[in-house]
Amino acid sequence: MTATTLTEKETAIREKLIKAASEGNKVYYSDLVGGEDASLIRSLGAILENITRYDLENKQPILASIVVLKSTGLPSEGFFEMCDTLDIDAYLSDLQKECFEWWSE
């Protein structure tokens, strides 16, 4: 199994997520893309999946769990599909709590 490496863009997004988690905050998808071009919006799911693979390999909480839709306060359907694909079997609230606790230390 090859180790997951993050691109510059993925690392920058992961750092935003770590900052939010350390403050106990969730992040809206729209805040991650900000004024970026449409290609980032289309690739955000793949970016978050790669960050999740990196987190799993490094035995760290799943940062993508704190990324939510403004309309529902929940991650997109793609997040839950990714959890199924990667055999992540946990309640969303537990994943988020683990993130907040881990990164606040």
Strand order of the largest sheet: 1-2
* Main sheet makeup: 2 strands, parallel
What percent of the residues sit in helical stretches (DSSP H or I)? 55-70%
Strand content: under 5%
- Global Rg: 13 Å
Mass-distribution shape: globular
Elements, N to C (H/E): HEHHEHH
Description:
The N and C termini lie far apart (30 Å). Helix 1 packs across helix 3. The model has no long low-confidence stretch (mean pLDDT 91). The protein has one domain. It has 105 residues and is mostly helical. Helix content is 59%, strand content 4%.
What is this structure, in a nutshell?
By secondary structure, the chain is mainly alpha-helical. Helix content is 59%, strand content 4%. Helix 1 (8-22) packs across helix 3 (38-57) and helix 1 crosses helix 5 (92-104).
Descriptors:
105 residues; mainly alpha; two-stranded parallel ribbon
